[in-house]
Specification:
The structure holds 2 protein chains of 2 kinds. Chain A starts with a strand and ends with a strand. Chain A is mostly beta strands. Chain B is mainly beta. In chain B, strand 8 and strand 9 form a beta hairpin. Chain B starts with a strand and ends with a strand. Classes of the chains: A mainly beta, B mainly beta. At the A-B interface, strand 5, strand 8 and strand 9 of A face strand 5, strand 6, strand 10 and strand 11 of B.
């Protein structure tokens, strides 16, 4: 079946603008994760959704970051007032739901803030 | 302190040789899982293999095996008969169970090893 999809694949934005990144998980996967990959910080976990439960937001790097998941499926990561340090590849992953199930990653969104 | 340490930033290996990628981890959680992912130059993260902390046997998946030494907190990935297509970044990751929450609900990744297979 289809894997995790993310859009857009690339996004260039000006500093101070808001951006929305979208993730469509594998059908039937109840858990959804957002990560960020940058040269300086490596791979960082951002936020996790299990079904329709409210997520733990403490992994988000600042209050400019927010995420939501509608209907237990598609998720949107929003970054407000983007800064140059937000430039990174944002990866989404999904899994069957148990904590130790393997996560399947999407192709990522490359965000460049100019 | 780093939870996942990969000490080999880069490795060159001759095609058809076996290769071992090192990974050590740090946790006081008795319940955890260890994962290896491959990231080719295309950027997508590909799941390779999983080892649970209570698993008695080392995990194997085709040419991949995980050398799990719990007392040493080591989870090295072994690739047998390497192929040119194995050239990629390899990441070791961990998920803790009991001490999750508070931003620890996702995988914690190491910095990766860049493996290059030479013909």
């Amino acid at each position: 079946g289809a894997g995790v999809s993310q859009s857009p694949s690339n996004k260039v934005t000006e500093k101070g603008k808001d951006v929305e990144l979208r993730c469509d998980p594998i059908s039937g996967h109840t858990a959804l994760y957002w990560y960020r990959q940058s040269l300086g910080q490596g791979l960082e976990f951002l936020i996790y959704f299990q079904g329709n439960s409210a997520p733990d937001k403490s992994g988000l790097p600042s209050d400019r970051f927010s995420a939501e998941r509608t209907g237990g499926s598609v998720s949107t990561l929003t970054i407000q007032r983007t800064q140059q340090e937000d430039s990174a590849v944002y990866l989404c992953a999904s899994s069957l739901g148990l904590a130790l199930n393997e996560q399947y990653f999407g192709p990522g969104t490359r965000l460049t803030v100019t | 302190a780093q939870k996942i340490t990969q000490t080999q930033p880069g490795m060159f290996v001759q095609e058809k040789e076996a290769v071992t990628l090192d990974c050590t981890y740090d946790t006081s959680d008795p319940s955890y899982g260890l994962f290896w992912y491959k990231q080719p130059s295309s950027g997508e993260m590909i799941f390779l293999i999983y080892q649970g902390s209570y698993d008695q046997q080392n995990a194997t998946e085709g040419r991949y095996s995980l050398n799990f030494q719990k007392a040493r907190k080591s989870a090295n990935l072994v690739i047998s008969a390497s192929q040119l297509g194995d050239s990629a970044m390899y990441f070791c990751a961990m998920r803790e169970l009991m001490y999750s929450g508070g931003g620890a609900d996702g995988l914690t990744f190491g910095k990766g090893t860049h493996l290059i297979i030479q013909p």
